[in-house]
Amino acid sequence: MITRTSTYSKNNIATYKILDDLKVEVSVQQNVYGIPLEDLFLMAARINKKRAFLFVSKVLGKHIPIQPAKGILVGALLAARYLEERSGEQQEITSDLLSQFMMDKPGSAEISSFIDDSNPIVIGFAETATALGHAFFEAFKEADYFHTTREWLDEVEPAITFEEEHSHATSHRAYIKKELLNNSREIILVDDELTTGKTALNIIRSIHASFPRTTYTVVSILDWRSDEHIALFKSLEAELGIEIHSVSLVKGTVSVEGQANLLENEQDSPYTIGDIVQNVSYHEIPNPSATIYKDERNHSYTSYTGRFGLTADENREATVWLEETGNQLAGLRTGRTLVLGTGEYMYLPMKIASYMGDGVFYQSTTRSPIYPLFKEKYGATNRYSFPDPMNHSIQNYVYNISPGEYDDLFLFFERKIESEQLDALLEELKRAQVPNINVIYLDEGCE
């Protein structure tokens, strides 16, 4: 048995008054390692008719800037939790990971693979959990990884498709070789948070229809499924004759009172541009990975993201390149630095940021429309909105950047970006008062 697990009484309830007419109550039943909730998330109102609130993670590097090592450590800690659940035994590495994770300044982001008796297929969910899934995958000495995507590739048939019902962008695809799934290996689905679990059920159905197997595991930082939603998992197990295991750091339930009647265009950042001089430079960095697919502009994706499938050996090769790149880009810094990933392109920029020295923070652009409000302990104190540079029909956002907070901003793109594609984003970022902006993109790589 695992004796360190903490189980909470029904009286362990936290209430979040998000807006005057919206309140969320969280009842924690299990907090495996005793991590304070305030270290894991803040709350915010969500501009979404299907779900009015959002757990805004403080450890993913999506909506709130983090020290990059924190995002890598949370994936490793979740993998340690998976190992303890599977083995039923405490693991020495868990204490080491937890102590680093709880530090104000986490230790090294270099974490050696520590799970050597399993060879799963790990899947991260786009867009928020692409980095979390990748960090979790790195704990395995032998495994394969891919993340789902909302990208659309012409003339390429995805191996699986499924829907995320509550999302603002619902359709997911997986552009992987079908051979990767045509086996009986365990599938591990990685997401940051389960509220209903319907997204996980949808992908399990999609995989099982073409590539049946006996065992699936769903891992998440937060698991807020109700008894009704857990029953849906049991029902699918019985229907398909499978086992679905669940692993999380925090488990409980959520109840909601009221609603948020918000408009999409409300409350963008009020900051004026001021007299900042924005120095923008462009840097092409090597892409040593194979270029499997190209976008509509004939620019190459990299295979190192895992979007098209990634082996453990390929990931170890990528880590060498990421460290070299981080050391090189560190020479461009002038002071306090924000590394900004874009959309699903989260993990590689975060890993590079971890090698760029002290005073470096990381987060990513997002499609998620959150209602911004300048309020203490609220998850989105400001918002910058702009069209996605790669697809101007899609609106993107960045949150929680105070004017003058950073000396340098490193803006990462997976594929080559033309300067005119960035005009709207750079104009919006003038409000953030960052004097030095370095635009980083990958070259065309190897054919």
Automatic annotation (TrEMBL):
Pfam families per the UniProt record, alphabetical: PRTase_2 (PF15609), TRSP (PF12500)
Ranges for domain TRSP: 304-429
Origin: domain of life: Bacteria
Domain Orotate phosphoribosyltransferase-like: 40-253
Descriptive protein name: Adenine/guanine phosphoribosyltransferase
Species lineage: Bacteria, Bacillati, Bacillota, Bacilli, Bacillales
